[in-house]
Amino acid sequence: MFSRRPTLTVLAAVALVSTAAATAPADAAQVQVQAEKAAPAKYPQVAAKPYMGWSSWSLQSTNYPGVNPDGPGSFINEKNILTQANALATKLKPYGYEYVNVDAGWQDGGDEYGRPIAMAKRFPRGMKAVGDDIHKLGLKFGIYTTVGLGTDVYRDGNTPIYDAPGCFTRDIVYPDLRKTNGWDAAYKINYASPCAQKYADSIAKLFASWGVDFIKMDGVGPGSWKGAPDDPNHNNIEDIQAWWRAVQNAGRPMQYTLSWSLSHRYADVWKQNSNGWRIDTDVECYCDTIVKWDSSVKQRWWDVAQWIDDAGPGHWNNLDALDVGVGAMDGLTDAERQSYMTFWAINSAPLFAGDDLTKLDAYGLKLLTNREVIAIDQSGNPARPLNQDQLQQVWYAHNKDGSTTVALFNLADSPATVTGNFDQLGIDGKATVRDIWADQNTRNVSGAVSAQLPAHGSKLYKISPSRVPVATPADLTATDVSGTTTTLTWRPAAGATSYKVFANGKQVATASGTSTVVSGLSPQTQYSFTVRGVSGGSTSGASAPVTMFTSAGPVRYEAEASSSTLTGDASVSGCSLCSGGSKIGNIGYGSTVTLNNITVPTTGTYLVKIAYTDGDTSRQSMLTVNGTDTYWANYSGLGDNDWGTPQVTYLPMKLTAGANSIKVSNPNGYIADIDWITV
Global pTM? Predict the structure, then answer.
């Protein structure tokens, strides 16, 4: 029995990738210095909890009949925004929804100082009047902008900067007028000029004068699949720092959030210079509904994994709009709508609806207004996956009151049973299980929660066990194995001050933290590891065991080796930081790579490590062993179009004595490029 925590993907270390050592970003030291420059937050209350509200983009982007009657993107105007604000105030404000965010499409160039102005035809009274009307409803006003200097306000460099005598737009850009942002639709600003900070200040103060409470800045890199270390034009860290300073000094509390698909390797910068960030692309499908399950809703289960530990008061992981309120318009089944709402809530993501709030159906209103589900979101305690090696996933969060929030998800396209075992979740003895969506309690439950779920279905539980002096450690995971050592990690156990680690029933280590390296093991030998929490004279029950073999090497198998089998468009490509200088790319759909002759002496579970490159947000693959057993692997991406820096993930897999084959594939999408596998 084993569990796997998939979020511990790391940049490949020198020892793992031969002489062409994979490295952290070339500017990592600079990034650390930049992170330390962050201005202190003057208004920490604005993002103490994930925000709740409504945003306009989902309706503006859809082709659903009647929503954009005057052509694509025509929804946004003063009348429609205020109609939605009134509906929000009436239907959802009592449950905590308060922000009305006017997304892209409101702006029409800039004023004489290059500051944004509203489209007169759509917002004839201007944005301050819109904000005033929103505030009269007891709501808050959000607005959209993009990173960089708009090319339309450059005006041959002669536009003066407001409240900055002697500063013009020519003074804040580079002489070559290099482009930036996710669409290359703006000039990159040169923050070596003091005039540049003045420009950010001028817009932030303008927004404050309009009564803005929330700013979304879009097209930010590194991220949005741009801004790799060799692409400095799309590195907007200095923009974000300047804007953070500007927002803190604008004289009004305003949330400042970033979009879209931010690069995770700069997470420390985003945390110190914003109130949150989108971890993914748009959730909308740009089709005849608002979203589709396969368009990008389901991708969030994979993409958020590497971000879980970055969320917290002041800065939250934004999963994008919550389009679950109008069934016909949403483009989802009721099971998918519930899973959508459940996943956003357990991740403490901002809850902002994108539907037409005047048309909420009874089921959508029930989803959006369940106070228990909202409380889970607002607790600010993001869940984490107990497993991601199958499409039946268990996500959980330990709560301060001793309970555990557990969500079961079936991401497969057909019904399946999903089970959350108490020993893996760190739950002792019998417990009261509350099925939150069903509003039902079951007492004296032991062993597990389990449910037969429809395709893309879910369950959400609050599990309250009898109190024990020391809780059982949850999610014991092996993260590294050699011939004589195994590295173990686990989640903190309530009440524990230290931990005892056991191998085959014998104590082999004591740990003060939640990880340890067990040494002195025998090569090619199977061990069953458990951990118990300790406090004074009290000891917890044993964690769920992790059982696997130590290695004889480990042995590395290159994906590009002549013994591998390639199909379709899968091919060898150069990669200077990859082992051997090559990798296999173009894998997915009908294209696969199979690594052959992976040899082990005894049948059993082994820790398989996979080196890969992924400049996307994340990609997934199936790994099929000897044509039978299938596992899923999640390749957390760098998000900045860097396909040359290897990372490593790991997966416990059952291998058969002798030679094995591992086929890497995904019939429904492209996957990361594969460098090597070690066993």
Answer: 0.94
